[in-house]
Each structure stands twice: as structure tokens, then as C-alpha cells.
Amino acid sequence: MSQSARESSACLVQLTNVVKSFKTAAGAYTALHGVDLQIMPGEFVAIVGKSGSGKSTLMNMITGIDRPTSGSVLVGGTAVHTLSEDQAAQWRGQTLGIVFQFFQLLPALSLYENVLLPMDFVRVLPKAARAKRAADLLARMGLADHSHKLPTAVSGGQQQRAAIARALANDPLLIVADEPTGNLDSHTADQVFQLFTELAAAGKTIVMVTHDRDLARRAGRTITLADGRIEAQPEVRIAV
User: Fold this and answer.
1) Three-class secondary structure assignment of 124-175
2) I need a surface site. Which of 27, 48, 157, 197 has the fewest CB within 10 A?
3) What is the pTM of this model?
């Protein structure tokens, strides 16, 4: 087996010649132009680019929220682009932990219940083990004393830490974060980014979209998108 083939088989995320086009009132619009991307297990990758560069579309390809017009998307050996909507939803619950800019915690549920919910959905862990894992994850995020509060009763930084705990609930192969610090002040954003750095150092694979290039430089690798194309990339290196 060639070196390139070995590297390909070892990838956690592999996009090959991914094109994504949309039909608009003004005509066809191509958001991604033949994107090739490989992410290895344990990498911390930051994706940056101007508004309209294709960052969100790229994330939607990786998470299976949308499908490419052509090309392939493999995550953990699964051909994500071939999954039905129901299959994709189940796959996301088992494989991905997703962190959003605006937290997306359910407002009527406590932080503890928000973390418990994905475990109840996927049912990988026995029911008796889920409560302990939810409590342990919140404690790991420094939220043990706030676990039974509603999201509106805690700060934005605490909500985002709870969202990270929720993303970790099913011990996913991949953490995907979409502007996770975009709604936080600079000090709190730095604290949240440090949490991702610690997770990467512990072996988690993380793909993060961010507008903050200073934070992005602290990731293991930075990928810049421009007009739906990836600019020249540095060599793959694992964050430590």
C-alpha cells in the first residue's frame, strides 16, 4: 500500500472532490469547488474564512446536514453522503458532538437534563450509567454546582461549557464546533477555547469554524477557505 493510501485509510474525516451547488433566483451558485480535505484522529483543526467563503457549507457536508452535489464525504469510515435523513440523524447522535454559537440548550430543561438528553436518544449507555456520566461531564466543565439550573440562570460562558458537556455525552469520534466563541466576550472565549485545547490534548478530534484568527492559530492546524476553495494547507500536525 502506498503512503498516500495508508494516510487515506487512517483518516477520520475525508472529503474528496466535494462540490456543492445551489439553485437561487439569480441562477446556480457554487459554494464549494472540488474540495479535498483529510483530518486525522486526534487533530484540532480550525476553519477560517470570510463570510460567504463556504465555511458553513463545509461543516454541513461533514455533519451530514446537507449532501454534496458531487464528490464523497467519509467520517469514521461511513459514507455520510449516502445516508438517508433518518440514518444521518442516528449517525450524528452516535458519532458527532456538535457545539453551536448560540448554545442551543433546551430552555425548559436544566443543564443536567440537556446533557442527559443525547444519551437517552442514542441509548449506547445503560440507563443507570447515563446519570453519572452527565454529572461527571458537568463537573469536568466546572458546573457541578449549577447542574440543576436552567440555561437562563447561568452565564453565556457557563451555557457554552454545558453545551460542550452535552457534545461529549456519547463519547463521539468527532467534535464539530460552529463559531463556539462567537457569542462570548474575549475572556470567556479564551476560557472556552482552552477547554477545546485540553480535549484535543486528551485525544479528541475537533473541527472548529471560527472568525477569530488569533484563536485559530492556537489550533493544531488552520484551514482557510476562500470562495469555496481551500487555500494552500500546512502539513498535518497533531495538537499537543
Assistant:
1) CCCHHHHHHHHHHHHHHCCCHHHCCCCHHHCCHHHHHHHHHHHHCCCCCCEE
2) 27
3) 0.86
